[in-house]
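Exam revision sheet. Question 4 asks you to relate a sequence to its structure. Input first:
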Amino acid sequence: MGLNSFAQVADSVIIGAAYPNKGFYSLSTGNVGQMPNTDWDLQFAAHSSMSSTLRLNGGFNVKAWEYTAGDSSQWAQLDTVGMGSSNGWLPVYDAMNSFDPGAFEMTATAFPNYGWGTYNQISHDIVGTKLFVVQTSAGSYKKVFIKALRAGTQELELRMANLDGSAQSDFAASRAGLTAKSWIYIDLDNGSVSDPEPPGASYDLTFEKYLGLASPGVYYPVTGVRLNRNVQAVRVSNTHVDDVNVAGLTLGGDIVSIGHDWKTFAGTAFTLADSMSFFIEDQQGDLWQLWFTGFVGSSAGKFIFNKRKIGSASVDGPILVQSGLRIQPNPVGNVGHWLLRLPEGVQQGRLMLINMHGQTVHQEVLSGAGWQDIVFSPEVLGLKSGVYMVRLEAGNKSSIERMVVR
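Answer key, structure tokens:
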């Protein structure tokens, strides 16, 4: 069956002049909603009690530096001497292709080091050890101490002040009861916390301004599309949208698989890449093809595109050859994700973790349809640094992936 035999639908997402909003989009139902994208500085992972990820609003000039001239005991002494140089200051950035690690985890080493803090094996809290300076979206500078992430209350405790020590305050960002959301948002200038986005399971894509990577070590704000968790995609270039052979395409979880560079600014308007489309597996396991037909830049922030459904979760194999198992990130640091899906019609499966001696060191029984996100901690599972094989058995099928624990 040719691709042009599937009905295509024209749609658009508008995030406003100068791109002030974040638009949430479901491939099956369309626009889900929007939130202001300019009034927050940090986003804290809400979907998992095991995640310590804290990201920056890089698209709106939020920047962070780790203070390396001293530890958290130097709170009162921290000042701007050496800022932007190698004398006590280290710029930190979020991972570009996945949601973790966040900027504050960038210097994490092996467990129990989480970058900004250290895991306490008695309380299970992560206790802060480092200081940071953050330039907020409003352009002010704050010194920030991430005091702790409390395992019991799920509160992230922060201390912040102006660089001269004035306006010091302690506050907590709680994600308790918010696991249906992907993120909660922190405004450092106001010391406020909010959760304005729709439930994470309700959308597949976000249309937004975010920090991109122009070349190694060179970052700049871009406007484009990022994948939600549990969504996978692949880009196909130099092939007419009706002529793509989808058999054998391999999708991946790179959150900027769609990204921003399908368009180019040509002096007065944007031009679109020729013969480029994206194949996306949504959170229900359905496969879609999407291609852009227009983009209105900062005057409107309008993305114009066509989409069509190529296959459903009930089609297992003929449309898209892929594994039912993904590991993110890989190598795994403090927290990892097993993304998996049981074949259609299979009610139960088994996930096994096998070390290099062939020993099964962990296993669990699985059930449920669609993609599942199983969050795990190597430390909790007693995993040492090294290589493991993760095997998913379901019905008469199996998938196996190599996993590295840092």
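Marking note for examiners. The chain has three domains: 3-27+204-311, 42-194, 325-405.
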